[in-house]
Amino acid sequence: MQQINNKCSKSIFICCLYMTGFLLTETGIFGQESYLSELLPGTESSFHHLNLESSKITGKSHFRYETLIKEGTRFVVEKNENTKTDGEVFTRKTLWFDADSGIPKWYKEEDLRKEFRITNSYTRQIMHTRLVEDGQVLEFKTDLSTDNAVPFEVVIFFLRKYLKQILQNKKFSFTLFIPLLAIELEKKGLPRSMSMISMWAEPQEKTRKDTPLGVMNAHTILVSPQSGLLRALLPWEKTHFEFTFAAASPYHLLQFKAGKTRHVLTSLILPEDS
Fold this sequence. Notes:
With 274 residues, the chain is of the alpha+beta class. The chain has one domain (2-269). 18% of the residues lie in helices and 48% in strands. The protein contains six helices and 16 strands. The chain has helices at 2-16, 155-161, 163-169, 179-187, 228-233, 236-239; strands at residues 44-51, 56-70, 73-83, 89-98, 104-111, 116-123, 126-133, 136-143, 149-151, 172-177, 196-203, 207-211, 214-225, 241-246, 253-258, 261-269. It has a 16-stranded mixed beta sheet that branches. Helix 1 (2-16) packs across helix 4. The radius of gyration is 18 Å and the shape is globular. It starts with a helix and ends in a 5-residue tail after the last strand.
């Protein structure tokens, strides 16, 4: 997800400078969702990063989901490492969910190529962001309930949870909150509300995909900004993202595409009791 984060935040930031009057549509979906059904402790998966221009593998992403106890509370933790082709890890991320409620509690990301650490913690509808970058510390709070926003780090869980509704509605509306964009806005003294982006989730044609578990029926979802101005000012590859999920519950992620890179599932280990 690192490439999606970086490309989306930088591109949308350019456009947001022109959009001080940008309006958001309420969807009735709240930022602090329960993702209990989407959490599968014991699952492990890997993706390779395929450059669509050169047809070369440029790196890999590895995910695993564990149940941990911290200070007497049980959590399900998503652990993610992104690596270069030689196996060198360049980013590490963890996303902690309360094991009983399935509600996200905090997210941590570290870029090992430089001094960059970001932590997002969630208390009800308030998200507290803390960034440490090049010796500087930046902290701020965001009220996710204002626009019923979905934090970027949980967007895959969100799309899996609402996949049935997305397929039924054909054009599903939600508000995406991009923390990295909020950080850039905060640095420049601009309103962080501009990092709340109204998005469409639109199903594409049903397909079949080769996976580590055999050929699967799948659904591809196109996620793009609702704003015609945003789509007009920026190229397609910087504003449109494709997520392909297995058609059968629990709707495992099979592929996702951001810009010129397609992330393709290469390994999927399921819990023994699944």
